[in-house]
What we know:
This protein is of the alpha+beta class and 216 residues long. The chain has helices spanning 3-14, 18-25, 29-36, 43-59, and strands spanning 66-76, 79-81, 94-102, 106-112, 125-129, 142-148, 153-160, 167-170, 178-181, 183-187, 189-193, 199-201, 211-213. It has four helices and 13 strands.
Amino acid sequence: MNMQEKIRHILRVGGETQSQLAQRVGVSQSTVNRWLTGSEPEGHNRDVINGLYATLATDVSEIIPSRSVPLVGYLGAGGEVDPDFEQVPSDGLDQIELPFPLPDDMVAFKVRGTSMLPVYRPDTVIVTYREQKKPIESFFGFDAAIRTDAGRRYIKTINRGSTPGLVNLISWNDPVPIEDVRPAWIGEIFAVLPPAALRKVDRQGGIQGQLSLRAG
């Protein structure tokens, strides 16, 4: 497998954005983009990428060979999503078939809104762990799905709030953060897939949810 394929594997299976991978390696996002279009990383950068790829390859042994995940609702990105208005069947609103195996107990959400462009476009599917597995502090500076204690769901960059237990939610295309909210759940992103990469199976009807558009 060449370096371009390894980087794509890291982004896909690791669920990271180009910016997050750039932070790990210690380069700019534009450098990662050049690698994806054919430029070869060298020296330390190549070693780091090989190490990340090897770690993911090891983790594959723990992955259950399932290819479908339940779609359980929306994440707001310029829209405010209140899941209290969603009537979600126990097996989800839809079953989304993915082009790779994934761990057990995962759920998927669709993005609504444009405040997290260019990565999280409307109808992008974000796959997360169903249960929060890490403490709040581990998400600071990273993108994640979040449900607040008020019941709102977003896809945002998570930053530290003014007091312990509170977080600020940052949008890429909105200068005004949502400040000092208390998370009820933060979902670690496992994979981000554009609509064109997906094939729905066993559709069970449209999402019966209420989406109130606002800056957010």
